[in-house]
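A reminder from the course coordinator: this example appears on the midterm review sheet, so study it carefully.

Given structure:
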């Protein structure tokens, strides 16, 4: 049973976007790896921009610098 954990920085995807991500990720696992659709589990986690860092700075800091 594949578990797919998708992590993203805020803002939170809409309900419709989450449904599309789940559908298309599941279809990809079926198409590429031959997994059973009913067994694919997709988790979507959203983190605040102050909880995600790139290059030693939080996303929040980077956005402030680029304004």
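Designed residues:
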């Amino acid at each position: 049973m594949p578990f797919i954990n998708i992590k993203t920085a805020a803002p939170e995807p809409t309900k419709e976007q989450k449904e599309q991500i789940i559908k298309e990720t599941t279809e990809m696992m079926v198409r590429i790896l031959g997994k059973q659709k009913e067994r694919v589990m997709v988790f979507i986690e959203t983190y605040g921009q102050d909880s995600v860092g790139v290059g030693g700075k939080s996303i929040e800091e980077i956005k402030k610098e680029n304004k």
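Residues 15-33 form the longest helix (19 residues). Strands lie at 3-9, 41-47, 53-54, 57-58.
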